[in-house]
Design brief:
Layout: H1 17-35, H2 38-41, E1 42-46, E2 69-70, H3 81-88, E3 120-124, H4 138-149, H5 200-222, E4 224-226, E5 231-233, H6 236-244, H7 247-266, H8 268-273, H9 281-296, H10 316-333, H11 340-362, H12 379-410
Antiparallel strand pairs: 1-3, 2-3, 4-5
Helix pairs in contact: 1-9, 1-12, 5-6, 5-7, 5-12, 7-11, 7-12, 10-11, 11-12
The structure holds flavin-adenine dinucleotide (FAD).
Protein backbone atom coordinates (compact mmCIF):
# COMPACT_ATOMS: atom_id res chain seq x y z
CA UNK A 1 0.00 0.00 0.00
CA UNK A 2 2.86 2.34 0.86
CA UNK A 3 4.78 1.44 -2.25
CA UNK A 4 7.10 4.26 -3.26
CA UNK A 5 5.76 6.60 -0.59
CA UNK A 6 8.19 9.49 -0.15
CA UNK A 7 9.70 10.07 3.28
CA UNK A 8 12.16 12.38 5.04
CA UNK A 9 12.71 16.11 5.00
CA UNK A 10 11.81 18.17 1.92
CA UNK A 11 14.95 20.13 1.16
CA UNK A 12 14.85 23.86 1.88
CA UNK A 13 11.62 23.60 3.82
CA UNK A 14 10.83 23.01 7.46
CA UNK A 15 8.66 19.95 6.88
CA UNK A 16 8.77 16.40 5.65
CA UNK A 17 6.88 14.55 2.93
CA UNK A 18 4.62 12.79 5.41
CA UNK A 19 3.40 16.12 6.87
CA UNK A 20 2.70 17.54 3.43
CA UNK A 21 0.77 14.43 2.41
CA UNK A 22 -1.21 14.55 5.62
CA UNK A 23 -2.07 18.27 5.16
CA UNK A 24 -2.97 17.45 1.58
CA UNK A 25 -5.41 14.74 2.59
CA UNK A 26 -7.02 17.06 5.19
CA UNK A 27 -7.38 19.99 2.80
CA UNK A 28 -7.99 18.51 -0.64
CA UNK A 29 -11.80 18.40 -0.56
CA UNK A 30 -11.86 21.92 0.96
CA UNK A 31 -9.73 23.58 -1.71
CA UNK A 32 -11.73 21.73 -4.39
CA UNK A 33 -14.98 23.14 -2.99
CA UNK A 34 -13.47 26.63 -2.80
CA UNK A 35 -12.35 26.83 -6.43
CA UNK A 36 -15.85 25.86 -7.57
CA UNK A 37 -17.38 28.85 -5.80
CA UNK A 38 -18.45 31.90 -7.78
CA UNK A 39 -15.63 34.21 -6.66
CA UNK A 40 -12.89 31.71 -7.44
CA UNK A 41 -14.03 30.24 -10.72
CA UNK A 42 -13.66 33.40 -12.81
CA UNK A 43 -10.29 34.84 -13.81
CA UNK A 44 -9.66 38.06 -15.72
CA UNK A 45 -6.77 38.32 -18.18
CA UNK A 46 -5.50 39.44 -21.56
CA UNK A 47 -4.99 36.26 -23.59
CA UNK A 48 -3.58 38.03 -26.60
CA UNK A 49 -0.84 40.35 -25.38
CA UNK A 50 2.20 40.36 -27.65
CA UNK A 51 5.26 38.42 -26.61
CA UNK A 52 7.71 41.10 -25.43
CA UNK A 53 10.83 39.02 -26.09
CA UNK A 54 10.63 37.53 -29.57
CA UNK A 55 8.35 37.46 -32.60
CA UNK A 56 5.36 35.25 -31.92
CA UNK A 57 5.53 31.88 -33.62
CA UNK A 58 1.73 31.91 -33.95
CA UNK A 59 -0.92 30.35 -31.76
CA UNK A 60 -1.59 26.62 -31.60
CA UNK A 61 -4.73 25.94 -33.64
CA UNK A 62 -5.74 22.65 -31.99
CA UNK A 63 -9.28 22.75 -30.66
CA UNK A 64 -7.95 21.77 -27.23
CA UNK A 65 -5.70 24.85 -27.14
CA UNK A 66 -8.59 27.32 -27.32
CA UNK A 67 -10.27 29.06 -24.39
CA UNK A 68 -14.00 29.73 -23.98
CA UNK A 69 -14.47 33.23 -22.56
CA UNK A 70 -17.36 34.37 -20.36
CA UNK A 71 -20.05 36.89 -21.22
CA UNK A 72 -19.39 39.76 -18.82
CA UNK A 73 -23.06 40.62 -18.49
CA UNK A 74 -23.46 37.41 -16.46
CA UNK A 75 -20.96 38.60 -13.85
CA UNK A 76 -21.51 40.79 -10.78
CA UNK A 77 -21.65 44.46 -11.67
CA UNK A 78 -18.64 45.29 -9.50
CA UNK A 79 -16.40 43.07 -11.62
CA UNK A 80 -17.40 44.36 -15.04
CA UNK A 81 -15.22 46.25 -17.47
CA UNK A 82 -17.65 49.19 -17.75
CA UNK A 83 -17.64 49.67 -13.96
CA UNK A 84 -13.87 49.53 -14.05
CA UNK A 85 -13.68 51.88 -17.03
CA UNK A 86 -15.90 54.43 -15.26
CA UNK A 87 -13.58 54.39 -12.28
CA UNK A 88 -10.56 54.95 -14.43
CA UNK A 89 -11.91 57.83 -16.47
CA UNK A 90 -11.23 61.42 -15.50
CA UNK A 91 -14.46 63.00 -14.21
CA UNK A 92 -13.56 66.30 -15.96
CA UNK A 93 -16.03 66.52 -18.85
CA UNK A 94 -14.92 66.39 -22.47
CA UNK A 95 -11.19 65.77 -22.08
CA UNK A 96 -11.79 62.20 -20.97
CA UNK A 97 -8.42 60.54 -20.58
CA UNK A 98 -8.07 57.13 -19.07
CA UNK A 99 -5.71 57.29 -16.11
CA UNK A 100 -2.49 55.46 -16.80
CA UNK A 101 -2.72 52.15 -15.02
CA UNK A 102 0.49 51.09 -13.42
CA UNK A 103 0.57 47.33 -13.80
CA UNK A 104 2.79 46.67 -10.81
CA UNK A 105 3.80 48.06 -7.46
CA UNK A 106 7.27 47.84 -6.01
CA UNK A 107 6.15 44.87 -3.88
CA UNK A 108 4.73 42.89 -6.83
CA UNK A 109 6.51 39.83 -8.17
CA UNK A 110 4.43 39.83 -11.38
CA UNK A 111 3.60 42.21 -14.19
CA UNK A 112 -0.19 42.05 -14.35
CA UNK A 113 -2.43 42.76 -17.33
CA UNK A 114 -3.87 46.26 -17.45
CA UNK A 115 -7.49 45.71 -16.27
CA UNK A 116 -8.78 48.59 -18.42
CA UNK A 117 -7.39 47.07 -21.63
CA UNK A 118 -10.15 46.27 -24.14
CA UNK A 119 -8.61 42.82 -24.72
CA UNK A 120 -9.07 41.77 -21.11
CA UNK A 121 -11.65 38.99 -20.78
CA UNK A 122 -13.17 36.87 -18.04
CA UNK A 123 -12.72 33.13 -18.22
CA UNK A 124 -14.60 30.46 -16.29
CA UNK A 125 -11.75 28.23 -15.14
CA UNK A 126 -14.03 25.23 -14.63
CA UNK A 127 -14.91 25.30 -18.34
CA UNK A 128 -11.24 25.43 -19.39
CA UNK A 129 -9.33 22.77 -17.46
CA UNK A 130 -5.55 22.62 -17.69
CA UNK A 131 -4.75 19.35 -19.44
CA UNK A 132 -3.12 17.87 -22.53
CA UNK A 133 -3.53 20.22 -25.49
CA UNK A 134 -0.91 18.95 -27.92
CA UNK A 135 1.13 22.17 -27.58
CA UNK A 136 4.73 21.01 -27.98
CA UNK A 137 7.84 21.39 -30.13
CA UNK A 138 10.15 24.42 -30.55
CA UNK A 139 7.61 27.05 -29.38
CA UNK A 140 6.99 25.34 -26.02
CA UNK A 141 10.68 24.47 -25.70
CA UNK A 142 11.72 28.09 -26.30
CA UNK A 143 9.37 29.32 -23.56
CA UNK A 144 10.66 26.81 -20.99
CA UNK A 145 14.23 27.65 -21.96
CA UNK A 146 13.59 31.39 -21.49
CA UNK A 147 11.99 30.70 -18.11
CA UNK A 148 14.97 28.66 -16.91
CA UNK A 149 17.39 31.32 -18.20
CA UNK A 150 15.80 33.72 -15.71
CA UNK A 151 17.35 31.43 -13.15
CA UNK A 152 20.79 32.90 -13.87
CA UNK A 153 21.31 35.59 -11.27
CA UNK A 154 24.04 38.20 -11.64
CA UNK A 155 25.00 38.11 -8.02
CA UNK A 156 27.55 35.40 -7.38
CA UNK A 157 26.48 34.34 -3.97
CA UNK A 158 27.54 31.00 -2.66
CA UNK A 159 26.90 29.28 0.62
CA UNK A 160 30.45 29.96 1.70
CA UNK A 161 29.83 33.71 1.34
CA UNK A 162 27.35 33.92 4.15
CA UNK A 163 24.04 32.72 2.76
CA UNK A 164 21.60 32.04 5.56
CA UNK A 165 20.74 28.47 6.37
CA UNK A 166 17.69 27.16 8.14
CA UNK A 167 18.53 24.62 10.79
CA UNK A 168 15.52 22.65 9.70
CA UNK A 169 16.38 22.42 6.02
CA UNK A 170 19.32 20.06 5.97
CA UNK A 171 18.34 16.98 4.01
CA UNK A 172 18.23 13.59 5.65
CA UNK A 173 20.66 11.06 4.22
CA UNK A 174 19.26 8.84 1.55
CA UNK A 175 18.79 5.19 2.28
CA UNK A 176 15.86 4.65 0.01
CA UNK A 177 14.97 1.11 -0.91
CA UNK A 178 15.46 -0.13 -4.47
CA UNK A 179 12.02 0.68 -5.84
CA UNK A 180 12.68 1.21 -9.50
CA UNK A 181 12.68 4.64 -11.09
CA UNK A 182 9.36 5.93 -9.82
CA UNK A 183 9.82 8.08 -6.71
CA UNK A 184 13.07 6.40 -5.85
CA UNK A 185 15.55 8.38 -3.79
CA UNK A 186 13.02 11.10 -3.20
CA UNK A 187 14.34 12.06 0.21
CA UNK A 188 17.97 11.86 -0.78
CA UNK A 189 20.34 14.29 -2.45
CA UNK A 190 19.03 15.32 -5.84
CA UNK A 191 22.34 15.61 -7.59
CA UNK A 192 21.36 17.06 -10.93
CA UNK A 193 20.18 20.57 -10.16
CA UNK A 194 23.72 21.59 -9.31
CA UNK A 195 22.72 23.14 -5.99
CA UNK A 196 25.48 21.89 -3.70
CA UNK A 197 27.13 25.26 -3.39
CA UNK A 198 24.27 27.53 -4.34
CA UNK A 199 22.70 29.96 -1.95
CA UNK A 200 19.29 29.22 -0.42
CA UNK A 201 17.52 32.03 -2.33
CA UNK A 202 18.67 30.76 -5.71
CA UNK A 203 17.74 27.21 -4.86
CA UNK A 204 14.30 28.39 -3.78
CA UNK A 205 13.89 30.30 -7.03
CA UNK A 206 14.84 27.30 -9.15
CA UNK A 207 12.70 24.89 -7.13
CA UNK A 208 9.60 27.06 -7.53
CA UNK A 209 9.99 27.21 -11.30
CA UNK A 210 10.77 23.52 -11.57
CA UNK A 211 7.87 22.69 -9.23
CA UNK A 212 5.50 24.68 -11.43
CA UNK A 213 6.86 22.87 -14.51
CA UNK A 214 6.37 19.50 -12.78
CA UNK A 215 2.83 20.41 -11.85
CA UNK A 216 1.96 21.40 -15.43
CA UNK A 217 3.50 18.16 -16.73
CA UNK A 218 1.53 16.11 -14.20
CA UNK A 219 -1.75 17.66 -15.34
CA UNK A 220 -0.85 16.91 -18.94
CA UNK A 221 -0.16 13.26 -18.05
CA UNK A 222 -3.17 12.96 -15.76
CA UNK A 223 -5.61 14.22 -18.37
CA UNK A 224 -3.97 12.89 -21.49
CA UNK A 225 -5.69 12.45 -24.82
CA UNK A 226 -5.00 9.05 -26.34
CA UNK A 227 -5.28 9.57 -30.10
CA UNK A 228 -5.66 5.85 -30.82
CA UNK A 229 -8.62 5.27 -28.49
CA UNK A 230 -10.01 8.82 -28.59
CA UNK A 231 -10.22 8.71 -24.77
CA UNK A 232 -9.01 11.11 -22.05
CA UNK A 233 -7.31 9.57 -19.02
CA UNK A 234 -4.10 9.17 -16.98
CA UNK A 235 -1.01 8.13 -18.92
CA UNK A 236 1.49 6.35 -16.66
CA UNK A 237 4.34 6.30 -19.19
CA UNK A 238 4.00 10.04 -19.67
CA UNK A 239 4.26 10.50 -15.89
CA UNK A 240 7.25 8.16 -15.48
CA UNK A 241 9.16 9.75 -18.37
CA UNK A 242 8.54 13.38 -17.44
CA UNK A 243 8.43 13.21 -13.63
CA UNK A 244 8.74 9.82 -11.95
CA UNK A 245 12.19 9.10 -13.33
CA UNK A 246 13.49 12.48 -12.09
CA UNK A 247 13.42 12.55 -8.28
CA UNK A 248 14.35 16.24 -8.09
CA UNK A 249 11.29 17.19 -10.17
CA UNK A 250 9.12 15.36 -7.67
CA UNK A 251 10.89 17.00 -4.74
CA UNK A 252 10.30 20.38 -6.32
CA UNK A 253 6.56 19.97 -6.57
CA UNK A 254 6.32 19.11 -2.86
CA UNK A 255 8.57 22.09 -2.21
CA UNK A 256 6.37 24.48 -4.22
CA UNK A 257 3.29 23.16 -2.44
CA UNK A 258 4.95 23.83 0.94
CA UNK A 259 5.80 27.43 -0.01
CA UNK A 260 2.34 28.26 -1.40
CA UNK A 261 0.64 26.64 1.59
CA UNK A 262 2.70 28.83 3.92
CA UNK A 263 1.52 31.97 2.09
CA UNK A 264 -2.11 30.80 2.19
CA UNK A 265 -2.01 30.21 5.95
CA UNK A 266 -0.52 33.66 6.53
CA UNK A 267 -3.59 35.25 4.91
CA UNK A 268 -6.16 33.93 7.36
CA UNK A 269 -6.82 37.29 9.07
CA UNK A 270 -6.62 39.31 5.87
CA UNK A 271 -9.16 37.16 4.06
CA UNK A 272 -11.56 37.13 7.01
CA UNK A 273 -12.13 40.85 6.24
CA UNK A 274 -11.79 40.68 2.44
CA UNK A 275 -14.86 41.94 0.49
CA UNK A 276 -15.55 39.15 -2.00
CA UNK A 277 -18.41 41.07 -3.65
CA UNK A 278 -19.97 38.24 -5.59
CA UNK A 279 -23.20 40.21 -5.94
CA UNK A 280 -24.85 38.02 -3.30
CA UNK A 281 -24.28 38.57 0.43
CA UNK A 282 -24.98 34.92 1.28
CA UNK A 283 -22.42 33.79 -1.32
CA UNK A 284 -19.85 36.27 0.09
CA UNK A 285 -20.34 34.79 3.54
CA UNK A 286 -20.14 31.23 2.21
CA UNK A 287 -16.82 32.07 0.50
CA UNK A 288 -15.40 33.40 3.77
CA UNK A 289 -16.45 30.25 5.62
CA UNK A 290 -14.91 27.99 2.94
CA UNK A 291 -11.61 29.85 3.18
CA UNK A 292 -11.55 29.85 6.94
CA UNK A 293 -12.40 26.14 6.95
CA UNK A 294 -9.53 25.43 4.58
CA UNK A 295 -6.93 27.47 6.45
CA UNK A 296 -7.96 26.32 9.91
CA UNK A 297 -7.58 22.69 8.84
CA UNK A 298 -3.83 23.36 8.45
CA UNK A 299 -3.47 25.09 11.83
CA UNK A 300 -2.33 22.07 13.83
CA UNK A 301 0.53 21.44 11.43
CA UNK A 302 3.98 22.91 11.82
CA UNK A 303 4.89 25.76 9.44
CA UNK A 304 5.92 24.21 6.15
CA UNK A 305 8.37 26.90 5.07
CA UNK A 306 10.37 29.46 7.04
CA UNK A 307 10.39 32.64 4.94
CA UNK A 308 12.38 34.47 7.63
CA UNK A 309 15.51 32.55 6.64
CA UNK A 310 15.52 34.19 3.20
CA UNK A 311 17.26 37.46 2.28
CA UNK A 312 19.20 37.72 5.53
CA UNK A 313 22.84 37.53 4.51
CA UNK A 314 25.28 39.91 2.85
CA UNK A 315 23.84 41.53 -0.33
CA UNK A 316 20.36 40.53 0.78
CA UNK A 317 18.68 43.65 -0.67
CA UNK A 318 20.20 43.25 -4.13
CA UNK A 319 19.52 39.53 -4.05
CA UNK A 320 15.87 40.28 -3.20
CA UNK A 321 15.55 42.77 -6.05
CA UNK A 322 17.09 40.32 -8.51
CA UNK A 323 14.85 37.51 -7.29
CA UNK A 324 11.74 39.71 -7.68
CA UNK A 325 12.74 41.12 -11.08
CA UNK A 326 13.58 37.71 -12.51
CA UNK A 327 10.21 36.42 -11.37
CA UNK A 328 8.52 39.43 -12.96
CA UNK A 329 10.22 38.49 -16.22
CA UNK A 330 8.83 34.98 -15.95
CA UNK A 331 5.35 36.49 -15.70
CA UNK A 332 6.04 38.47 -18.91
CA UNK A 333 7.37 35.38 -20.70
CA UNK A 334 3.92 33.85 -20.25
CA UNK A 335 2.69 36.12 -23.07
CA UNK A 336 4.99 34.10 -25.37
CA UNK A 337 3.19 30.80 -24.72
CA UNK A 338 1.72 29.83 -28.09
CA UNK A 339 -1.45 28.06 -26.90
CA UNK A 340 -4.35 29.98 -25.38
CA UNK A 341 -5.24 27.46 -22.72
CA UNK A 342 -1.60 26.91 -21.69
CA UNK A 343 -1.19 30.70 -21.58
CA UNK A 344 -4.28 31.04 -19.38
CA UNK A 345 -2.98 28.55 -16.81
CA UNK A 346 0.62 29.71 -17.17
CA UNK A 347 -0.40 33.30 -16.45
CA UNK A 348 -2.69 32.30 -13.61
CA UNK A 349 -0.09 30.10 -11.92
CA UNK A 350 2.77 32.60 -12.22
CA UNK A 351 0.42 35.21 -10.72
CA UNK A 352 -0.45 32.71 -7.97
CA UNK A 353 3.20 32.00 -7.21
CA UNK A 354 4.07 35.70 -7.45
CA UNK A 355 1.28 36.47 -4.98
CA UNK A 356 2.63 33.86 -2.57
CA UNK A 357 6.12 35.41 -2.85
CA UNK A 358 4.72 38.89 -2.26
CA UNK A 359 2.88 37.71 0.88
CA UNK A 360 5.99 35.95 2.19
CA UNK A 361 8.72 38.44 1.32
CA UNK A 362 7.42 41.91 0.47
CA UNK A 363 5.62 42.78 3.70
CA UNK A 364 6.15 42.53 7.41
CA UNK A 365 3.68 40.23 9.16
CA UNK A 366 1.86 43.19 10.73
CA UNK A 367 0.98 44.49 7.24
CA UNK A 368 -0.90 41.30 6.37
CA UNK A 369 -4.11 42.66 7.81
CA UNK A 370 -7.06 44.04 5.89
CA UNK A 371 -7.47 46.94 8.30
CA UNK A 372 -3.93 48.23 7.88
CA UNK A 373 -3.40 47.19 4.26
CA UNK A 374 -6.70 46.72 2.39
CA UNK A 375 -5.00 46.88 -1.03
CA UNK A 376 -2.52 44.14 -0.27
CA UNK A 377 -4.14 41.83 -2.84
CA UNK A 378 -6.48 42.54 -5.72
CA UNK A 379 -9.29 40.28 -6.92
CA UNK A 380 -7.15 38.46 -9.50
CA UNK A 381 -4.31 37.80 -7.07
CA UNK A 382 -6.64 36.14 -4.57
CA UNK A 383 -8.24 34.02 -7.31
CA UNK A 384 -4.82 33.10 -8.75
CA UNK A 385 -3.27 32.17 -5.40
CA UNK A 386 -6.02 29.72 -4.42
CA UNK A 387 -6.35 28.22 -7.89
CA UNK A 388 -2.58 27.69 -7.97
CA UNK A 389 -2.77 26.00 -4.60
CA UNK A 390 -5.55 23.82 -5.98
CA UNK A 391 -3.49 22.88 -9.07
CA UNK A 392 -0.60 21.85 -6.82
CA UNK A 393 -2.99 19.88 -4.59
CA UNK A 394 -4.37 18.11 -7.65
CA UNK A 395 -0.82 17.27 -8.70
CA UNK A 396 -0.14 15.64 -5.31
CA UNK A 397 -3.37 13.67 -5.68
CA UNK A 398 -2.31 12.57 -9.15
CA UNK A 399 1.11 11.46 -7.85
CA UNK A 400 -0.65 9.10 -5.44
CA UNK A 401 -2.75 7.74 -8.28
CA UNK A 402 0.32 7.18 -10.49
CA UNK A 403 2.13 5.55 -7.58
CA UNK A 404 -0.67 3.02 -7.35
CA UNK A 405 -0.79 2.47 -11.12
CA UNK A 406 2.96 1.86 -11.09
CA UNK A 407 2.70 -0.63 -8.23
CA UNK A 408 -0.12 -2.44 -10.08
CA UNK A 409 1.98 -2.61 -13.21
CA UNK A 410 4.91 -4.16 -11.34
CA UNK A 411 2.79 -6.58 -9.31
CA UNK A 412 3.06 -10.23 -10.40
CA UNK A 413 0.01 -11.40 -12.37
P1 LIG B 1 9.07 20.04 -21.64
O1 LIG B 1 8.03 19.90 -20.56
O2 LIG B 1 8.81 21.01 -22.73
O3 LIG B 1 10.47 20.40 -20.91
C1 LIG B 1 11.59 20.95 -21.61
C2 LIG B 1 12.87 20.52 -20.88
O4 LIG B 1 12.86 21.06 -19.53
C3 LIG B 1 12.97 19.01 -20.67
O5 LIG B 1 13.57 18.39 -21.78
C4 LIG B 1 13.82 18.90 -19.42
O6 LIG B 1 15.18 19.01 -19.74
C5 LIG B 1 13.45 20.13 -18.62
N1 LIG B 1 12.42 19.83 -17.58
C6 LIG B 1 11.22 19.21 -17.73
N2 LIG B 1 10.54 19.21 -16.59
C7 LIG B 1 11.31 19.83 -15.67
C8 LIG B 1 11.14 20.13 -14.29
N3 LIG B 1 10.02 19.84 -13.63
N4 LIG B 1 12.15 20.77 -13.65
C9 LIG B 1 13.29 21.11 -14.31
N5 LIG B 1 13.51 20.85 -15.63
C10 LIG B 1 12.52 20.23 -16.29
N6 LIG B 1 1.02 21.49 -22.85
C11 LIG B 1 -0.20 20.93 -22.69
O7 LIG B 1 -0.50 19.91 -23.31
N7 LIG B 1 -1.11 21.48 -21.81
C12 LIG B 1 -0.85 22.60 -21.07
O8 LIG B 1 -1.69 23.08 -20.31
C13 LIG B 1 0.46 23.20 -21.22
N8 LIG B 1 0.78 24.31 -20.53
C14 LIG B 1 2.02 24.89 -20.75
C15 LIG B 1 2.33 26.05 -20.04
C16 LIG B 1 3.56 26.67 -20.27
C17 LIG B 1 3.89 27.92 -19.48
C18 LIG B 1 4.47 26.14 -21.21
C19 LIG B 1 5.78 26.81 -21.49
C20 LIG B 1 4.15 24.96 -21.90
C21 LIG B 1 2.93 24.33 -21.67
N9 LIG B 1 2.60 23.15 -22.33
C22 LIG B 1 1.37 22.60 -22.16
C23 LIG B 1 3.61 22.41 -23.10
C24 LIG B 1 4.33 21.38 -22.19
O9 LIG B 1 4.74 21.98 -20.96
C25 LIG B 1 5.57 20.78 -22.83
O10 LIG B 1 6.43 21.80 -23.25
C26 LIG B 1 5.28 19.85 -24.00
O11 LIG B 1 4.34 18.86 -23.61
C27 LIG B 1 6.57 19.14 -24.49
O12 LIG B 1 7.12 18.40 -23.41
P2 LIG B 1 8.56 17.80 -23.38
O13 LIG B 1 8.46 16.42 -22.81
O14 LIG B 1 9.23 17.99 -24.68
O15 LIG B 1 9.40 18.64 -22.26
Amino acid sequence: KDYCKPYGQIRDTCCDYQSVESIQSDTFSKIQALVQSKFFKYYKLNLWRECPFWNDDGLCMNRDCSVATTDESLLPEEWRQDALGALQMSPKGSAFQPFKVCTYKDQDFCVADDPSDQDVVYVNLLDNPERFTGYTGPSAGKVWQAIYEENCFNIVHKMSEGCPTCSAISPVPSNSPPLGPLLQDLAGPTGDDGDDEVCLEKRVYYRLISGLHSSISIHICDEYFDRTTGQWGPNLDCFVNRIGAHPERLQNIYFTYAVVLRAVTKLDDYLAQYPFQTGDVAEDEKTKILIHDLISSTKDCPATFDEKTMFQGADSRSLYVEFRDHFRNVSRIMDCVGCEKCRLWGKLQTTGLGTALKVLFAYEDKSLSYRSNPRLLNHNEVVALFNTFNRLSESLEAIQKFRKMYADRLAPP
